[in-house]
Amino acid sequence: MVFGHQSHYTGRMFTPPSAGQRLHLNFNENNLGISPLAREALEGCLTQVNRYPDAPHAELVAALAEHHGVSAAQVVLGAGSSQSIHVIIEAVSRRAQDAGQPTQVVMPLPTFDAGLTASAARRLPVRGIPLLDNLEADLKGLRAACEDFAGQSIVYLCNPNNPTGTVVSSAELKAWVQSAPQTFFLIDEAYVEFVTDTRFEEADAWVREGLPNVCVVRTFSKLHGLAGLRVGYSLSTAEDAGLFAGFVPEMPVNLPGLLAARASLADTEFQRRSLEQTLQARDIVVQTLDRLGLRYVGPNGNFVFHELPASVGGNRSYRHRMSELHIVVGRDFPAYEGWNRLSLGTPDEMRHMTAQMMEVLGQVE
Ligand SMILES: Cc1ncc(COP(=O)(O)O)c(C=O)c1O
């Protein structure tokens, strides 16, 4: 039995999930598919993969520089923005080490893991600052942790944050960035396109303005749906970009990734559809949570962090109930045992998901 609409991008109709085809709503991926132009680029590149991708690398860098209004010397590609995060933490801490300064990495917790794993790889101490009661990052607490420390602080801040989907006020953050030139700010904007909170401003503007202590990382894994190809990048001063480039392997993104990313960047129609579908999916989830009377925060990403009714018995038990329905929802976040991060699929998928959610979460009250 098939339901709903045929996907313009995959050509498939929505079919309810089954044991052989589970519905994945756990990794903040893009279930819509990819841009047809990216697909064409991928299919067409097979005859070129015997060549090193120097020119496509330079072309993607140039296209990103134009897109963000910066110079090509300010853009450094990574094999996913996860690699960019590792590279930046390594490079900034080495620079501090060369200047005889210790480094600490300061971040709200919970947040995306790459900041923690990159710090652990370099044996850097992490100051994790718990979220506020409204689950937003505690800017004052983060700032106090930096002011306490004699040395180089690197603030790793996902805006919006994962797993919560909350943002911090860009005005407050920018004022802090400007008043603390000795602190380095690594701002992760993986979900930038999905933000609807009006307190948010894209931090690439701060790189354009020339703020020297800020670096922004972006990814093609979310809006563009190219997670499997691993394409991310950083924007910073040209001087810092030169430093970072020294820590990235030569041409970290392979030819298919470079060509697909460039094609997708040019495909504004796909980006528009991808955003529209995600926001529709988000509305479907939010309306269901409202009907169930469950709290949620944000949401400003392609996922919704929401409360579970106490009677469902915590996140693990909820995951188990959903997996019996062939739906995979988000993992545990230890400090938020009674919450779940639900990644958004297509609107058809979320209509199915929320009907199941009403059954599972509605009946336990
Ligand atoms: C905040 C954040 N940054 C970065 C990433 C990783 O992106 P990439 O696939 O570019 O490594 C994720 C992935 O979930 C994320 O949530």
Automatic annotation (TrEMBL):
Residues 25-353 form the Aminotransferase class I/classII large domain. SUPFAM superfamilies: PLP-dependent transferases (SSF53383). Gene3D superfamilies: Aspartate Aminotransferase, domain 1, Type I PLP-dependent aspartate aminotransferase-like (Major domain). InterPro entries: Aminotransferase_I/II_large, HistidinolP_aminotransfase, PyrdxlP-dep_Trfase, PyrdxlP-dep_Trfase_major, PyrdxlP-dep_Trfase_small. It comes from the Bacteria. Transmembrane segments: none annotated. Coiled coil: none annotated. Pfam families: Aminotran_1_2 (PF00155). GO terms for molecular function: transaminase activity. CDD domains: AAT_like. Keywords: Aminotransferase, Pyridoxal phosphate, Transferase. The keyword Transferase applies. This is Histidinol-phosphate aminotransferase. It comes from Deinococcus piscis.
